[in-house]
Structure formats: C-alpha cells, structure tokens
C-alpha cells in the first residue's frame, strides 16, 4: 500500500494552513481550539480518502496501444485506453514511460472520469532515429473528490517497438501515384516529349501533340485529326544510391541527411514499383554496404525496407571509386541511378567528378545534394554587427558554391538536383517522372 500511496498538493496546502494557524495561536489563543479541530478534520479526510481509494483492489484499468513499428520522422499516434471502475468520479494523472530517445522528462496527461467511464486518450510521438524504442509501464495516479492522497496504479506495458524509415508516407504517395494525382503533393505533371514503345489509345488531336503521332486511318474514319498516345515504358531499372559518409550526418529538424535520403528512397522505390518499373538499392560509405538488385517481385519492398532500417552513418569519407566499380560489375542494364549525397564545396565534388562521369556514361545518373536551409536564416536577417556581416557573407558564399556544384555537374551532362531536406521526396519523384516522360532511359 505504501508504495502506491502519494500525497497530493491539496494535502500540503492544508498542512501549511494548519501550521500558520498554530503559529498564530501563540498570539491569538482563541485560534488554538480551531486549529486542533481542523487537525482532526484533516486526519478524518485523509482516512476517508484512503478508504475510498483502497477499498477496491482492481478499481482501475489502463493499457497502451501502438503500431507494431514507428515511422521515422512522422507523427505516430499512441493510444491509452483507460477505465474507471470506482463508483465515484476521479481525477487522474497519467505518466507514460516513454523511450529514452525522446528525452521527455515531464510527460503528464490529466483527465477527469465519471463513475464506470471508459475513455481513449491519444498523443503523438515523432521519432528522429531508426532503431528499437523501449516503452516502460503506464502509471496512473487516481485521486478521489476529496483529493488529499493519490493511489498509483502501474500497468506493465514494457514493449520494444522498432522505428523504420518513414513508411507512413508510402500509403499517401502510393494512392496518389496509382490514381495519377501526384500533383496534389506538389509533384509536377510533365508532358511527354516523344513516343514510347507501348501503345495506349487513340485520342483527338489537341494543340501540342506530336504531329508525327497522327493516325491517318483513324482521322479518315472520324473526319477529325486523331493521334496515337503511348504509355511510359515499363520494367525499367531504378536504383536509389545512398551515400553514408560523414557529410550525411548533418541534422535538420532532428533528422540526419542520411535519414532524409532513406525516407525518400523508400517512397521513391514504391512509386517506381507502382509505375511497373524495377526498384533496387545501393548503400556505400568507405566501402560498399548493400547492393540489392532491381526487381519488381512482390517481396521487393520488404527487402528494401529491411535494408534501409539497418543503415547507419559512417564517419569516414565516402569512396566513389568503390561505388563506380560496384555499379560496373553489378548493374549490367542501363538504369536510372538516384545518388543521394552531399558535397559541401566545389573542390570536394571535383575530386569525384571522374567517377561520376564514368557512371553517367553508362547510366542515367541523377546527383541529389542538399541545400542548407539554416543558411537562409543568416542571409536574410538584418546584420547589427561586423561579425554578423562576416557571417552573412560566408553564408552567401556557401550557397553560391552549392549552385556552382550543380552547374558543374550539368556541364558534364550529369542530371543534378539541389534540394531542401524537407522537399527531398517530392523533388526526387519529380525528377523520376521527368526522365520517364522524356524517355531518357
């Protein structure tokens, strides 16, 4: 009983009032009998409170419900089901023992429950690291209407929940890709510039259609211009390549660049498979880590998800020579390669340009580097000191150098994207749709 008994603030307030009355009774003797009566009243209230709370053995129920796995970088709902079995209304305080990764040291939920009332409470958790998260017990402190003491009910809900790459975004993009409504997510609809080999249907000619696709036989039958329309080519090879070097350790809004790349790769793979292409994965740091061949098998998404879950950032320089050799020996078909990396200076990119050009000679290579959004805060603030002016100039120089990197890559015929971390998924899908629309593969 003592382990579950806690004193509420109301009890301490009452003690303070009694102490003040007893102190005052030294000067005003008539207060002393009142103080003595109030002491016994307090003792009686505490005894009655204990009687109400401890009469029933199992007078409260609570349980926690979570997903079998959490989605990294997303808000994941957690549900607490509680039920008051007392015959009087109660005031409760819930302390859920959250995983240490969240560093929540003052997580409390307050609720009022009527007699025999059940309620479901929800809150959201946003993990920023992949791995296992240990949830502890659910602690419920129940107070009666008297409110002098609280009884703690502890429900053992110790579970380990793995945190995977942002799979919650998969359903959102999957539905949009399947229904051809990707523009709702800011993903551009790109007009085809040429014909693909898979015929789709014959439609009336509209301004902008390729005149070479006019179907003259259908035009003669309908007495109006008709054109052939073609589907995107299917079963093309799409690889997401993730750099795990030290430059990908940089965090933005709690997530590292590596995690942004992992989340984008997961969604990109799903969109490619929904478009009937083959999705594969390569991760590398100072050595090659994962080479998952591109296929469209039903279990391919699970393989990609499990491999992405295990990735960790290395603190060494990424070896692009090893990447080039792995691509040369492992990928025999012309493929779309989406390379997620981060060059902080033009000189660091130029050290790798030879390998990037060799890869681009055999495949459609898209180099995706990250724009440092924190620099905008420095650039657009009004400087008030000489130091802030220097910082602003340096920030502008860093942004300009990123743009030079993109320009230099494009000069060598390499597709390049400079993306904010938060917009990475949308920008990657846009580039994928653009390449398919232009039949560059």
Describe the structure in your own words:
With 441 residues, this protein is an alpha/beta fold. The chain folds into three domains: 1-164, Immunoglobulins (Immunoglobulin-like, Sandwich), CATH 2.60.40; 168-191 and 233-437, 3-Layer(aba) Sandwich (Rossmann fold), CATH 3.40.50.410; 198-231, no CATH class. It contains twelve helices and 21 strands. The chain has helices at residues 9-24, 31-54, 168-178, 216-222, 257-274, 300-309, 320-330, 346-350, 353-362, 374-379, 386-411, 424-437; strands spanning 5-7, 60-65, 70-71, 76-84, 90-96, 109-113, 118-125, 131-135, 138-143, 149-155, 159-164, 198-204, 226-231, 237-243, 251-252, 255-256, 278-284, 288-295, 335-340, 364-370, 415-419. The chain has a six-stranded mixed beta sheet with strand order 18-17-14-19-20-21, with helices on both faces. A five-stranded antiparallel beta sheet has the order 1-10-9-5-6. The model has no long low-confidence stretch (mean pLDDT 88).
Features:
441 residues, alpha/beta, Immunoglobulin-like, Rossmann fold, 3 domains, six-stranded mixed β-sheet, five-stranded antiparallel β-sheet, 21 strands, 36% helix, elongated
The level-1 CATH class of the largest domain: Alpha Beta
The CATH topology of the largest domain is given as Rossmann fold
Computed structural class = alpha/beta
Give a quick account of the main beta sheet: strands, pairing sense, barrel closure: 6 strands, mixed
Please state the second-level CATH architecture of the largest domain: 3-Layer(aba) Sandwich
Name the poorly predicted regions: none
E-strand count? 21
**On the 0-100 scale, what is the average pLDDT?**
88
User: How is the largest sheet built, in terms of strand order?
Assistant: 18-17-14-19-20-21
Question: What is the helical fraction, as a range of percent?
Answer: 25-40%
Which value, in Å, is the CA radius of gyration?
Answer: 32 Å
